[in-house]
Amino acid sequence: MRAKIVYFALAAVLVVYFVLVGSRGVMLIQQGTAVTIAFGASVLVLPFIGAWFLYQTTRFARDANRLARELEAEGGLPVDDLVRTPSGRIDRDSADAVFAKRKAETEDAPSDWRTWFRLAVAYHDARDTPRARKAMQRAIALHDRKPVRAETA
After folding, report:
1. Helices 113-125 and 129-143 sit at what angle, rounded to 10 degrees?
2. Which of 14, 18, 93, 125 sits a CA distance of 20 to 30 A from 53?
3. How many CB atoms lie within 10 A of CB 149?
4. In this predicted structure, what is the pLDDT of residue 86?
5. Transmembrane residues, as ranges (predicted)?
6. pLDDT higher than 80, residue 148
């Protein structure tokens, strides 16, 4: 719950920032010179890019949480039995062992969104965030019956 509160607080701060930046862009355009119009138009692009990124990130998180709730209802969420260091970080060898198991499961059932979800969690535990995100995107696409690119685990 704490993570959601932090996420929405930061999202609200970003929206305020987008409004402030957008207003500065409009003020620059209103100056009417070629240079200020060019700068103003450039500045106006930034809030749109930021809003698009915020939307995509929020949609991804919502979809991943939807799959997690469904998998939890089925009793299929991966159990967190990883070895941890005294500081609380996941032991790399423990994460690698679980990752190998999840990768094999995904290779055996490449069209099952559940295996891709569990693989995404294993990637995350192994601190490979880009691959974790791609695996979760694939799980979401498979769950929603959207076309996916042919890639291996």
Report:
1. 170
2. 125
3. 7
4. 87
5. 7-29, 35-55
6. no
C-alpha distances in Å from residue 116, one per residue of 63, 104, 124, 128:
14, 11, 12, 15
Q: How far is CA 118 from CA 53, 77, 80, 122, in A?
A: 25, 7, 11, 6
Domains in the chain: boundaries: 2-74, 92-143
Cβ atoms of 142 and 109 within 8 Å: the answer is no
- How many Å apart are CA 116 and CA 86, to the nearest integer? 30
* CATH code at 92-143: 1.25.40.10
Integer Cα distance of 142 and 138 in angstroms? 6
- How many Cβ atoms sit within 10 Å of the Cβ of residue 102? 24
Contacts 24+ apart (CB under 8 A), 100-105: 102/78, 103/153
